Structures are given as C-alpha cells and as structure tokens.
Amino acid sequence: MKIFYSQFLIVFFIGISNAQINFEHSYTNTSGSSGNLYSFNTSSGLFYYTKQSNNISIYDENHNFTQDIPIIPGCEILFITDKLFNNDDNVEIVVRKSRNVTEQNPYALYTTWDIFILDNQGSTIHTFFDRKYPHVVKNSLGEYKLIVDAIGSCGGCTYSYNYVYDVYGLPGTLSIDQQSSILDNKIIGYPIPTKKLLTLTNVIPDANKKIEIYDISGKKVAETKIIIEDSEAKIDVSSLQSGVYICRYDDKSIKFIKE
C-alpha cells in the first residue's frame, strides 16, 4: 500500500509538471470577497480588476494597468461588460448596494437593495431602486433583455414583499466569451404570480417539444406548447388551479405561482 501510494504521488506531481501551469501575476484587493471572479470579457479581450473601497483598477490581458474607475463606496460588483447597454467600446459596471441595514441585525426583513449601472468614469447611468438580482438573457431573436427582481432570502427567513420582476430591452450585443460568462443559463419567467400567461426567457421554441408543468408534489399536471407573442415565448397557465408549480423545458426549470 505504501509503495502504491508513493507511486501515485510521483505520477500526480509529474502530471502537474507536464501540465505546465505557469504563474503569471498576483493582484491585491483591499475590498471584495473570495467568490468574486475579478475578471471580465469585452469585445477587446480579457481584463482583470482589483477592488478597493472607492474604486476599481483595470488591467489588460497582459496585466498592464489601464485605468482607475471610481465606484459607489461599499457596493458589490456584480459584473462588468461593454456593448450591452450601448454600442461603444467603454465598459459599464453593474453594482448593488444595501441600505437601511442595522448593525445589530444586517439581515433584517426591512433590508433593501439598489442596483446601479456605472459608466467607465464611475457616473451612474441607471438606478434600479429596491431591486437585488439582475439577469441578462437572450430571446429567440437574439435580442438581449435585462431582468431585475427583488426576490431574496436571509437564512431561514423570506422577504415580506411579493415577487417583482422588471424587464428591460437592451440595445447592445455580446461576444461569445461574454455570453458564456454573463448570460443566465436558466429559464426566467414573469410575471410571478400570474393569472394567465407566463413569459419565458432563454427558451428557443421547438415545435416538436412541449413544456411540462408539475405541482409541488412532483406530479405532472399539464403539457403545453409555447406561444409566440410579440417575439416572446409564453405559455398559457389559465387552466391551472391557484398554487405553486414547476415548469420544465429540456434540462431547465422554473418555479412559478398561479393566482
């Protein structure tokens, strides 16, 4: 056993050596979290950034410094992109920040969040008040949508407000690399709750496939075809009784509420 283990370690380290993992550069952040990617793709290539409390520093793919951008103090960076919110080559930064937070209980029910889009000078382009989660999706026509919602949870508790989704059409485009890092690879539906039609994003209509609907016990209660209306994919759920359901299409799913 010891001989086998030693041989395994030798092979393991030889494998790492043959893989030629080369150290390139080390960055230091004074603000941020270990979950951040600290890189982003643009139409000009890959970039890295470091975050301080009041600004971020941008570096190109060769680790050369390019610029400092002031940001809202204490905000959380969600993603950085270009050519999505407009057609120029300048980057836009999507951030969010909480407000009305008490030191004694930072996860209280009355905590709220705002989302901001900043330009490459740190100026605010747009603010989404009382919204926490942004999703970038693409419809079957290749058009990009920004969906922002106020759904959140704090440990075992749930925010007291209803499910709220706002949908915005975006004028720009994304490169293939940007799509892989920014687009949500899941179905997003709105409005929730709904009485009749549920609009779905990230769904490419296929006449040979049907959307399956299950109740919360896992029982299939309906199959339906996608309706194309105003260039959007929708399903009619008006025949369902009031309750919580799961909509499944291929390997994607979404939970929704029928009023």
Automatic annotation (TrEMBL):
UniProt keyword annotations, A-Z: Signal
Domain Secretion system C-terminal sorting: from-to ranges: 190-257
Signal peptide: 1-19
Superkingdom: Bacteria
Protein's name in the database: T9SS type A sorting domain-containing protein
Classification lineage: Bacteria, Pseudomonadati, Bacteroidota, Flavobacteriia, Flavobacteriales
